[in-house]
Amino acid sequence: LRSDKARGAPLPRVTLVHNNAFPRNEELWTFLRGAGAEGMVHNMCCHELALAVVLFGATPRRVRRVTLDRDASELADLGNGRSDWVRLSFALELGDSSDCGS
After folding, report:
1. Dist. CA 46–CA 81, nearest whole Å
2. How far apart are CA 18 and CA 73, in angstroms?
3. Average of per-residue pLDDT values in the chain
4. Is the CB of residue 64 less than 8 Å from the CB of residue 93?
Protein backbone atom coordinates (compact mmCIF):
# COMPACT_ATOMS: atom_id res chain seq x y z
CA LEU A 1 0.00 0.00 0.00
CA ARG A 2 2.82 2.41 0.80
CA SER A 3 4.44 1.90 -2.60
CA ASP A 4 1.09 2.39 -4.35
CA LYS A 5 0.56 5.59 -2.42
CA ALA A 6 4.09 6.82 -3.19
CA ARG A 7 3.46 6.27 -6.92
CA GLY A 8 0.16 8.11 -6.69
CA ALA A 9 -1.78 4.95 -7.54
CA PRO A 10 -5.31 4.69 -6.18
CA LEU A 11 -5.53 2.66 -3.03
CA PRO A 12 -7.65 -0.48 -3.18
CA ARG A 13 -11.06 -0.84 -1.60
CA VAL A 14 -11.02 -3.47 1.08
CA THR A 15 -14.10 -5.25 2.40
CA LEU A 16 -14.10 -6.85 5.83
CA VAL A 17 -17.03 -9.21 6.27
CA HIS A 18 -18.39 -10.63 9.48
CA ASN A 19 -20.79 -13.50 9.26
CA ASN A 20 -22.53 -15.05 12.21
CA ALA A 21 -24.61 -17.98 11.13
CA PHE A 22 -27.66 -17.05 13.18
CA PRO A 23 -30.84 -18.13 11.44
CA ARG A 24 -33.49 -15.42 11.21
CA ASN A 25 -35.62 -16.90 13.92
CA GLU A 26 -36.03 -16.73 17.69
CA GLU A 27 -32.37 -17.77 18.20
CA LEU A 28 -31.21 -14.45 16.69
CA TRP A 29 -33.71 -12.36 18.68
CA THR A 30 -32.78 -14.21 21.91
CA PHE A 31 -29.10 -13.48 21.28
CA LEU A 32 -29.72 -9.78 20.56
CA ARG A 33 -31.82 -9.43 23.70
CA GLY A 34 -29.46 -11.50 25.88
CA ALA A 35 -25.77 -12.33 25.37
CA GLY A 36 -25.44 -9.83 22.51
CA ALA A 37 -27.45 -7.10 24.20
CA GLU A 38 -24.57 -4.62 24.17
CA GLY A 39 -25.19 -4.28 20.45
CA MET A 40 -24.04 -5.80 17.21
CA VAL A 41 -21.36 -3.19 16.54
CA HIS A 42 -19.86 -3.72 20.00
CA ASN A 43 -20.32 -7.48 20.15
CA MET A 44 -19.52 -8.51 16.57
CA CYS A 45 -18.33 -5.70 14.32
CA CYS A 46 -15.59 -4.79 16.80
CA HIS A 47 -13.49 -7.61 15.35
CA GLU A 48 -13.57 -6.15 11.84
CA LEU A 49 -12.85 -2.68 13.19
CA ALA A 50 -9.86 -4.11 15.07
CA LEU A 51 -8.56 -5.54 11.79
CA ALA A 52 -8.94 -2.13 10.15
CA VAL A 53 -6.87 -0.62 12.97
CA VAL A 54 -4.11 -3.23 12.77
CA LEU A 55 -3.94 -3.68 8.99
CA PHE A 56 -4.76 -0.18 7.75
CA GLY A 57 -3.96 2.14 10.64
CA ALA A 58 -7.55 3.21 11.14
CA THR A 59 -7.85 5.63 14.06
CA PRO A 60 -10.63 8.01 15.08
CA ARG A 61 -8.52 10.93 13.86
CA ARG A 62 -8.05 9.36 10.42
CA VAL A 63 -11.73 8.60 9.80
CA ARG A 64 -12.94 11.23 7.36
CA ARG A 65 -16.31 9.73 6.50
CA VAL A 66 -18.54 6.81 7.46
CA THR A 67 -21.07 5.87 4.80
CA LEU A 68 -23.90 3.46 5.58
CA ASP A 69 -24.90 1.03 2.83
CA ARG A 70 -28.64 1.13 3.44
CA ASP A 71 -29.39 -1.67 0.98
CA ALA A 72 -27.06 -4.09 2.81
CA SER A 73 -28.04 -3.05 6.34
CA GLU A 74 -31.06 -3.86 8.47
CA LEU A 75 -32.06 -2.35 11.79
CA ALA A 76 -34.46 -4.47 13.84
CA ASP A 77 -36.91 -3.40 16.54
CA LEU A 78 -36.19 -5.50 19.64
CA GLY A 79 -39.07 -4.07 21.67
CA ASN A 80 -38.98 -1.96 24.83
CA GLY A 81 -37.59 0.98 22.87
CA ARG A 82 -34.50 -0.97 21.77
CA SER A 83 -33.22 -1.64 18.28
CA ASP A 84 -30.08 -3.24 16.90
CA TRP A 85 -28.48 -4.09 13.61
CA VAL A 86 -29.20 -7.53 12.21
CA ARG A 87 -27.03 -6.71 9.19
CA LEU A 88 -24.71 -3.73 8.92
CA SER A 89 -22.58 -2.56 6.03
CA PHE A 90 -20.65 0.67 5.97
CA ALA A 91 -17.57 2.20 4.38
CA LEU A 92 -14.83 4.03 6.24
CA GLU A 93 -12.93 6.67 4.33
CA LEU A 94 -9.56 7.23 5.97
CA GLY A 95 -7.51 10.36 5.63
CA ASP A 96 -3.75 10.32 5.19
CA SER A 97 -2.02 9.69 8.49
CA SER A 98 0.27 12.67 7.86
CA ASP A 99 -2.82 14.92 7.74
CA CYS A 100 -4.00 13.75 11.14
CA GLY A 101 -0.96 14.17 13.33
CA SER A 102 -0.69 10.36 13.62
Report:
1. 24
2. 13
3. 83
4. yes
Q: How many residues does the chain have?
A: 102
How many other C-beta atoms are found inside a 10 Å radius of the C-beta of residue 65?
Answer: 10
**Amino acid symbol at 60:** P
pLDDT one-digit tens code per residue, 47-65: 889 989 998 889 999 999 9
DSSP annotation of 30: H
pLDDT of 5 higher than 70: yes
Enter the pTM of the model. 0.73
CA pair distance 36, 22, nearest whole angstrom: 12
Round to whole Å and give the CA distance between 29 and 31. Answer: 5
Q: What is the pLDDT of residue 71?
A: 93
